[in-house]
Amino acid sequence: MAALKKWRAVAATPVGATALVLLTLVAVTAVLAPILWGEAAETADPSGMLQGPSAEHLLGTDALGRDVLLRVLVATRLSILLALASVAIGIVLGIVLGTAPALLPRWAGRIVVGAVNIAVAFPSLLLALFFAVIFGVGVFGGMLAIGFAMAPSFARFTHTLSAAITGRDYIAAARVAGVSRFRILIRHLLPNIGEPLVINATIAAGGALLAFAGLSYLGLGVQVPAYDWGKLLSEGLNRIYINPAAAIGPTIAVILTGLAFNLLGETAASVLGGRSARVFGIPLRGAAPVPSAHAQVVDDSMVLAVDDLRVTFPSPAGPITPVRGVSFSIGKGEAIGVVGESGSGKSLTALAIAQLIEKPGDVAAARLDFAGTPLLGAPEKSVRALLGSSLAMVFQDPMTSFNPTRRIGWQLAEASVEHQGLSWKQATERAVDRLRSVRVPAAQRRAGQYPHEFSGGMRQRAMIAMGLMNTPKLIIADEPTTALDVTVQRQVLRVLDSVRQGTDAAILLISHDIAVVSQTCDRVLVMYAGRIVEDLPASRLHTEARHPYTRALIDVVPELDTDRAQPLRTIPGRPPAPGAFPAGCAFADRCPLATELCREQDPGLSAERSDHRVACWHPVSDGASSPAAGPVRVEIEEKNR
């Protein structure tokens, strides 16, 4: 019923109405013409050869006295079938080549991309003639020739669209959930590039129609006694000065049909929108249980152990290491907050733990163990199975974290189908139950809705529910409350806390808001310039923080009793760029306590107490305000001088 309403809406527009009318006429002609006039179009009349247009023969007759108009109408079926078959070959081969870099090893993907780029440089008509010589003349050879000639452009187009999608958060979420590359391609990638592919394919159908007509005109396509519009055009051009109508007839047919295909592309984009027609809740097929590939847990109380974690990216000026020497651990049921300015390496640290750093990025660590399994040394399959069942990611932007073409319940159910061997029906019921557990009202109905039908806070709760579809040992929440109002922010944090209390899962909360972290976490890690500069209990953050940067972060947070007549306090200066870290302390240029020692030597994390570490040559004494934070007015005056 909904689809019928969409088609009615399209038909109400001039372009949509024209597309439907032309498409209907072409389709009806292709089906009925061979039945109604097939025999008459083949009947020769020696007494009426090479006649011009008349009331009896509107386009005249050919060299055997056959009616040209009837032959043009009958040729509609073969011409369209050949064009569609050629496009099908081209788009299937193009999709295979375009998505190959996402499935193959990096070196093999580069070879495929290079070959496609070389093929695209050649004109498609030249490629079609080349392949026609290889595959031979005739209908089958012509279809393969045109399909192979169209494949490079489809491959380039698919590769470009795929590259824009693979960086989205919902692709990363699927990878964290342990979904295989092939299933990510089928379930998440192709549905999201379906709309432009449909448009490109229908537009290409007009080009394929013209190309096949050209091959038949040159004698490389359809062979006698069969005929298509190209063959009829070849026959008509031989006597165009005597009877132009014989050539104009098939020409008009090609133009009108090509126009119909182009308008069909626009209509399909409006009506279909690339969305899957699968109805939520209908079991498709069960997935076989994934055999456990987990290593034995060495220490059941230790969920994550990170020692000297480094993330490096190549650049023209040499390797850049935005995360350099991060070390910490998370125990069972513990909540750790990571704070710092933008660019301090918080999110990169989380992505490295979740194994989401793509090549050419490199992740190295003296130790990176999750649930007793070394992530850097274990096989990819076992790591994917472990992370998919025991690690949950809550990304910063819930709108981009969900696949817009899939219903919420389907996306939640996918994780259980992959890792627990549940049927789609069982996984769907579990998805509804998990939505209820994170306080999503009307969970049954909401599970059948798309992400755009959820509010920001509801999407964030659904992301948490997705992480609970299995049994996570660790939940990484990367800026989960950004862009949410204070009320919704509090609700999301309460849900995370209730999940921790109910499942005993550890939480790694990444935030730029030090106040939020201090209120919801057990420990706080303060990061600056890719390193941890202070690690202390959250309960003593405001009273015992020793690093000047930590003190500055605390002091710039406005309080309810802050004098509104005074300018807000800020931290003067900017963090150093990842490729320009100084030899000494990275905070030295912004810290008024810095000395030559700070600028020459980088301090390591030293233990102030058994549960308190700080990396500073001149730590602030207990209870003192940060000397690094100053009012905005002072900073501006200094710049003006």
Give the SSE layout.
Layout: H1 2-11, H2 14-42, H3 68-103, H4 106-120, H5 124-135, H6 139-165, H7 169-176, H8 181-192, H9 194-218, H10 229-237, H11 245-271, E1 302-313, E2 320-331, E3 335-339, H12 346-353, E4 362-364, E5 367-370, E6 373-374, H13 380-390, E7 391-394, H14 398-401, H15 408-420, H16 424-437, H17 443-446, H18 456-467, E8 474-478, H19 486-503, E9 506-510, H20 514-520, E10 523-528, E11 531-537, H21 541-544, H22 548-555, E12 569-570, H23 596-600, E13 606-609, E14 612-614, E15 630-631, H24 632-640
Parallel strand pairs: 3-9, 3-10, 7-8, 8-9
Antiparallel strand pairs: 1-2, 1-4, 1-5, 5-6, 10-11, 11-14, 12-15, 13-14
Helix pairs in contact: 2-3, 2-11, 3-4, 3-6, 3-9, 3-11, 4-6, 5-6, 6-9, 7-8, 9-10, 9-11, 10-11, 15-16, 15-18, 16-18, 18-19
Describe, in plain words, how this protein is organized in 3D.
The structure is a single chain. This protein is of the alpha/beta class and 641 residues long. The chain folds into 3 domains: 65-271, MetI-like fold (Orthogonal Bundle), CATH 1.10.3720; 302-406 and 453-521, Rossmann fold (3-Layer(aba) Sandwich), CATH 3.40.50.300; 548-640, no CATH class. Helices cover 51% and strands 12% of the residues. It is built from 24 helices and 15 strands. The protein has helices at residues 2-11, 14-42, 68-103, 106-120, 124-135, 139-165, 169-176, 181-192, 194-218, 229-237, 245-271, 346-353, 380-390, 398-401, 408-420, 424-437, 443-446, 456-467, 486-503, 514-520, 541-544, 548-555, 596-600, 632-640; strands at 302-313, 320-331, 335-339, 362-364, 367-370, 373-374, 391-394, 474-478, 506-510, 523-528, 531-537, 569-570, 606-609, 612-614, 630-631. The strands form 3 sheets. It has an 8-stranded mixed sheet, sandwiched between helices. Strands 1, 2, 4, 5 and 6 form a 5-stranded antiparallel sheet that branches. Strand 13 and strand 14 form a beta hairpin. Helix 9 runs parallel beside helix 10 (229-237), helix 15 runs parallel beside helix 18 and helix 18 (456-467) packs parallel to helix 19 (486-503). The longest helix is centred in the N-terminal third of the chain and has 36 residues, at 68-103. It is elongated and about 115 Å long.
